[in-house]
Each structure stands twice: as structure tokens, then as C-alpha cells.
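Hi there, hope your week has been kind to you so far. Thanks so much in advance, here it is:
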Amino acid sequence: MYLAMSRLKVMYGKEAEFEAAWKKRETKTDGVKGFKNFNLIKASMDKEFSLYIFHSVWNSENDFTNWTKSDLFKLAHKNPTTQ
């Protein structure tokens, strides 16, 4: 198993909007070799932003790397939501 982790800063007061967008997003991972799932964790917050940590679970690092080099990855990250 391989975990790929990232962090996102979301502007204070925009957390509900971000979480709703996260739930509705198109991940472009259906049928991708080695993909297991995504998880989102709200970590900490202050007066400026809330920190979110998310990770994806893969069968192997190679499966994750192959996905990051794919057209599906580019499509999934084409229009990121800015918070």
C-alpha cells in the first residue's frame, strides 16, 4: 500500500463551500490501476485559514506515479477550485 499526501489552505469561512466542492468533485480515478480511495481530514484552523490534509491510497507508488503522468490526472487538475 502507498499513501500520497497533500495539504490545502482554505480561507477562513470558506470551509463548508470547500467541503461541498470536495464531495462533488470528479476524481478521474475510476478504473485507474492501483487506486483505492481518497480521504480528507480537517486539520487545524486560525483566523486566516483552515488546513486540510488529504491522501489517496494506492496499491503501489508506481501506480500513483503512473496516474500522475496520465491524461486523466491532467484532466482532474485542470480547473482547481481556488479558495
Observations:
- The first helix runs from residue 15 to 24.
- The two ends are 31 Å apart (CA to CA).
- The chain is about 30% helix and 35% strand.
